[in-house]
Amino acid sequence: MKLKLKERVIFQCLRKVYFVMRITLFFILLSSAIAFSANSYSQNAKFSLHMGNATVSDVLKAIEEQSEFIFFYQDQQIDLNRNVDIAVIDKTVNEILDQLFKGTDSVYKIIDRQIVIGKSQEQLEIKRLAVERLFEELQQPQKKQLKGKVTDAKGEGIPGTTVMVKGTTLATITDFDGNFNLDVSFDAITLSFSFIGFKQQEITIGNKTRFVVVLEEQAVSLEEFVVVGYGVQNKATVTGAISSVAGAKLVQSPVTNLSNAMTGRISGLLTTQGSGAPGQDQTTIRIRGIGTFAGSSDPLIMVDGIEAQNYNNIDPNEIENISVLKDASATAVYGVRGANGVLLITTKRGKIGAPQVSLSSQFAVSRFAEIRKNSGSAEYAQGYNEALHYDSYLTGVYIPKFSETDIKHYRSNDDPLFFPNTDWINLLFKPSTHQTQHNLNISGGTEKVKYFFSVGFMGQDGLINDKVYDSGFDDRMKYDRYNFRSNFDYNITKRLTAKVNLSSQIEELQGIRQYIGLIMSNVFATPPTVSPGIWDGKLIMNSNGPYYNNPLPGSFGQGAQRQNNNQLNGIVRFDYKLDFLVKGLSTHASIAYQNYNSLTTDYGKSLIQYYAIRLPENKYALAPINSESPFGYSESNNKTRKQDAEFGFDYSRTFGNQTIGGLLMYNQTKLFDPYLQFGVPSGYQGIVGRVTYDYKNRYLAEYNFGYNGTENFAPKKRFGFFPAFSLGWVVTEESFFPKNNIISFIKLRGSYGEVGNDRIGGDRFLYRPTSYQYNVNQRAYNFGEVGSTFSNYPSSMEGKIGNPDLTWERAKKIDIGLDVRMWKDKIRLTIDYFDERRDNILANKGTIPNILGATLPAYNFGKMKNGGVDGEINYTDKVGKLNYWLKGIFTITHNVVQFQDEVNRPYSYQLRTGQRFGQEFGLVAEGVYNSWEEVNDANRPVSAYNSNKIQPGDFRYKDVNGDGIINEFDQVPIGYSAFPEQSYGFSFGGDFKGFDISVLFQGITNFSHLASKKFYKGWQEDGSAIAYLNERSWTQEKYIAGIKTDFPHVSASSSQVHNYESNTFWLEDASFLRLKNVEVGYTLTSYVLKRLGVRSVRVYLNGNNLLTWHNMLPGEDPEIPNYSDGNNEPYPLTKTYNGGINVKF
Amino acid sequence: MRNIFIICSCIAIYALSTSCEKSFNDFLEKAPGIDVTEDTIFSSKAQVETLVTSAYYWGMHTDAGLWDERDKSDSPISGACEETEAVAPWFWTHSVWNTGGMSPSNSSSDMRWITRWKAIRIVNTLIERIDEVPTDDAYKTQVKGEAKFLRALNYFEMFKHYGGVPIVDHSFKPGEDPLIQRGTLEENFNFLIKDCEDAIAALPSTYPSKYRGRATKLAALSLKSKALLFAASPLFNTGTPVLELSGHNNLICFGNFDANRWKLAADAAKVAIDAAPASGCSLITDKGVDKNYKYVWEVMDNPEIILAEKSEGLRSFQYLTPASMGGMMGNTVTFNFVKYYEKKNGTPQIWDMTGGSDLNQKYAELDPRFNQSIAHNGSYWNVDFPEIQTTTEPVGRDLSGCYGGCWQRKPVPDAYTMWYKEAYGNWTMFRLAELYLNYAEALNEFSGPVQAAFDAVNLIRARSGMPNFPAGLTKDQFRAKIRNERAIELAFDGHRVWDERRWLISDTEGLMKGSMWGMKIYEIPGSTEFRYEPYVFSVRTFYPRMYLHPFRQSEVDKGYIIQNPGY
């Protein structure tokens, strides 16, 4: 019975307090338990009961609920199911019990708060004596002093461990070093030690007075509670589909922003990182894939319950946990913003105990993970001529671009000023760069105040080699970030608690004034023949070829740009218990404020660039082609602020075997940003509700709803109601389920619900009629006479036409999940099947003709479905002193666009409807034509490309519709889409005598990537050529010699389109497997350190993006999106080697 | 107690959902802010002026090869025919025109398709609502005139691209079926001529200086002249189009040949010429015979300009500037085109196609307009590059990309230098000289080479120091000479490619089809002369279907457009 009491108290506390860190729960329990033993409970308390046709059990429970009385009885001794009618007003407990047991042989005895019920006087007396004795001991405890120390497996003291005399409420907690003192009565039998994250341990006291207890780590209990939308729930009884990752895991990745650290660690998450540029290398995240083809697919991101404008700049050291809410049940409370899933980021909070200081410092070296190699000048020039030779079949004439003499000079490199051979990649990129991260955090607390402080610094440098040329100003590419956080918890009165979170992120982003994508493109795409680069310390411009490509002026002759961002976030939350009104009820209110300032300063400056001019007798002159300009200065800033407020009621109460929880809350958000459309603030508003029900931890039910309004829709269409319900059944709690060691836990979950999405392309007030925008300078027009009256006149332009009928994009989601724990919880498995149907997708009509001349609004007509399976499996075990674990996660999704107002295409296989969103289309390449006989075959289909001027070495395409013409109607769905559908992660690790290791692999499949033209088409637009191009391209000679080639013949002309149409050959399988993260560490704890006040020192090495296996062209990174043949290229991803030290005081 | 909870909850829900319903809506209602409705635009003259400006912005286009923000087009149109070869390999003149790649799936075929419909919606809105503006009637009449002019201009552009297109004479209202089918060529023609006539009646002859660039009566007259000239030309003025569009030939031609269309064209040109003085418009004749021509294209807003596109003030001419002079490639003039320049005495220049050693002399003999339009070896570019070097041997500084042997110079102003990477640049849409040439051509076609036709063309030649057309030309001889005169006088102004199409001569060897000749230039040691050596640098493709543009496949798929033949 006593154990039962404890569980129940835990539960009630749980339900009452949201956003409470799991460890603090124990302190709450503890403090209430201590309070319990200190006071005496009055037997004179009066009760009112009105219970018709209730069982005895019900009545006893009702008394328990209304009072602090606890009943003790043995089930077989009294008839609990006997029906009684009780109607009493203001009676004492004696009077009620007398009435209840009138006419039965049951008797009772009240000892303070404990009421013992028995069958006969004799048995009752035995009980009474036992309980009285126990009670006396509690009243007079100082009889025997126990001392001891609680440590973990590494011998490190565990502060804050609860040490309790089993069967009593007598307890204490360990101090900073894990030591405890406890006075117990002599007949105390067993001590129990418990601490979150460790297995509870019981030790018989016997005659011992000194104890050294080693607690065993227990991974399961770490995740015992999960953060859900506006609350915390017990993992065992949660019914929504939620996966999570602990902050400790995120810190293992030496990455500079949070989203990159999540990759491969959480099931249900699909990620791609499209750039490695410092400060701009965040990962795109999709929860369970893509569910809409028109609206935004971005998940909602909440930090400590508040929607975050930016979360990537949070220091991972501040993070306790990230929860991913996946199904409708979990996200319904977010209503209109929940359709794409929700990411909940929870920051660390203080725990009761002495201050704990953690200082970590790390230093990393990073380099490009994958980078391409271009051909040298001689090879380039020769290949160019060869390409032109092939192109002459199209252009009619072969005129070599480079003469034999040119090529000779390039080859011998005897005239490097005029015949340069410049490896721009080598010249402009550093082989490696560095980044550092430091964090100091302090946490601790007393019963009244708990605190967590964190200060962090992160510095990351770019890979552009600023040493190449001294531009005279600081344009080093770098990203510096300072993070501050202080989280406070106050127990103000017994009923009132408060939380205050203050955090700030200060960022400084510095770089070249030129757009980084353009610089990258210039470095990668500039031919080696263009310029010798720096000559006599001067920037030498092109001696031949295009002016614009040379990366030098872009990199060093533009000036610098600096961006300073400053974000300040504050949250204040009050919770007030309303137990005096309704037991289990509490109310809370919170206000959050986010303030973001950004200042961009632009220092424009151009440096002198030179042409090399050849003079007679092999002399040369460097002639300046422009003058150096003084610094130009300009600045621009952006200031936004966001206010969130919420007010609500929380309810949690256990009635015997049943626990009921509830939440009803109002919230509103307003964002002020001068750059928003119309310049007016944007807002959200809504009511959130939840009811949870739990019967014996066995049958679980939950109902959630969000009732939200958004500014995007007309007044009558503005609010949407989004309900979801879920059910859970813990099979192993059933009495029929055999208790065994193989399967310890099975839970079946299911949910169904609706969530919404109102975001489409950044437009606002979608319902409003035609709005006009004024334009000055840009998109304006000039009248007047040049030189006198010429001036600019502002114009106005119609915006989108309004659509007053617009409403929500609605997602109906089903989730069926299974949680299993096996072999003493060594194996933990979660698997979820999900299916989502969206309708009313806000999309632009595809069949509206251009002659309309206006931009039409979105309409609610799109339909899409998305579904799949995700899951994770964990295995934890130990062999001797080796603790090890394995973890696998996977996410499999597939979506289909069901309706999108598509144009009537001539062939049904060309319809985008019915395909996955973003399905690639292209021609089916079936090798190349190898001879003129094949080309001139009368049955060869005519190519609509190249004016049918096909030659050997051109692609042979499949004539899908059989009309004898290869054209766009032969394009069929090929491959997948450019966003992955399937992802998996596999990690393992362990620790042994202070050593620890962890390894994370991440993989992606069902992912297609249209190769970027620069990887297979050289010399285009006079750009560079990739080194392997000549080797892989078809030539007649290679064909005759039987040498296998895979590219068509080379070409430099933009008229060659036949070979470069999107086709099955250029569409690559972008599946990959990455060795994402490896960490090796050693933790040092020694007496010497202890004497110095150091609890532990951990040194570690880790690395990120270490190895990648993929099927793409050398130098391509599967995650970097296709950039076609444009003037911008992404900054490649980097791999990072990192070493660090963590000291705990 | 459960009851109490339920009651409390109910009260809370009720309170929140009912009492807050109004305040909910208030919270999310759009606050007053930057918010301009169509009603605002038509509430005052100042407001509606912004929409008129917008109509000009979207409705006036340039083919100069200056970056056009409106439709992201950049290629100089001169590279589409034998005038030049655009050197930049990515310019769409290669992929659309030179290699016969014009196709429904190539949106570069007509990058203005969407832009023009935007303009038409704006002018339709202006026409429909201008009367609501509380202002003077004269202004309303003028705006209607400007709107109709711009509508006619854009319909004319589509007329010359496609033939008949859907006639959209009003702004679509929500719920209206926008799938309007193509009107016949004649309906389109009548629609745009009616707009021209309305505009002629409504527009003022002149504006105050600060409104220079707005459509005048003369601009509308010029547009009408040009439209009638195109309508009379063989491309449309026929019963048998180049390619049949079975059952729908009336979408792409008039369905008959009517000689009177030439008369209408001649009359319209004459009316416009006669109206020029009232608009303060006159030929530039007083700067010297070797300077008049350049003055016309270099000095903005000179009296010869009837209407110019002014969407940008200072412009970058980098697409028209060779790489060696700090630009982005430039256009190299073909030898085919250089050959059109007569000698100063009015006889054709004799070029030796196997080469010769008197290049400088040959150049010096040419029509003064050659020097004023084309930068060639030894000529002046600007202060930075006083001498152009395009020799093959030794390698000249400006040779890279200069297949033709010379560079297109017009319309890059001298002021556009390495130091000043921007200069004012208007794109001439109509100028008086064109009207004289329109008149001469149309008159010859209708009446034969009558004196008035000679007078018109001789006026243009004389101001550039060229002798009169020899007397006694036959109609065919006159036609050949007037066509050559148009090529020279209107060089690089965006006329040539369309003239060749309307004359149905594009698929003639050396025009838009076949060999493009260039010139290799060699220094002759010890001499100031240069040797030239013609060679073929490119062979172009032209298919008969390219006499008309294809509609975009994406539009055809919407089911309201009948595609032009051959696509």
Overview of this structure, please?
The complex is a heterodimer of chains A (1145) and B (567). Chain A is mostly beta strands and 1145 residues long. Chain A contains 18 helices and 59 strands. Chain A has a 22-stranded antiparallel barrel. A 5-stranded mixed sheet of chain A has the order 15-20-21-18-19. The longest helix of chain A has 19 residues, at 121-139. Chain B is of the alpha+beta class. Chain B has helices at 2-28, 38-41, 45-59, 92-98, 113-129, 137-162, 185-202, 217-232, 260-275, 292-298, 335-338, 359-365, 368-373, 432-447, 451-462, 475-489, 496-502, 553-556; strands at residues 84-86, 305-309, 314-315, 331-333, 374-376, 406-408, 423-424, 427-431, 514-523, 530-540. In chain B, the strands form 4 sheets. A 4-stranded antiparallel sheet of chain B has the order 1-4-6-5. In chain B, strands 2-8 form a two-stranded antiparallel sheet. In chain B, strands 3-7 form a two-stranded antiparallel ribbon. In chain B, α3 runs antiparallel to α5 (113-129), α8 runs antiparallel to α9 and α9 packs antiparallel against α14. The longest helix of chain B has 27 residues, at 2-28. Chain B is globular. At the A-B interface, β34, β35, β36, β39 and β40 of A face α1, α2, α3, α4 and α5 of B.
Principal-axes shape call of chain B: globular
- What is the SS-derived class of chain B? alpha+beta
Tell me, rounded to a whole number, the average pLDDT of chain A: 85
The secondary-structure class of chain A comes to mainly beta
Number of DSSP E strands of chain A = 59
C-alpha end-to-end distance of chain A = 41 Å
Globular, elongated, flat, extended or rod-shaped: what is the shape of chain A?
A: elongated
Low-confidence stretches of chain B: none
| Tally of helical runs of chain B | 18
Q: Please bin the fraction of helical residues of chain A.
A: 10-25%
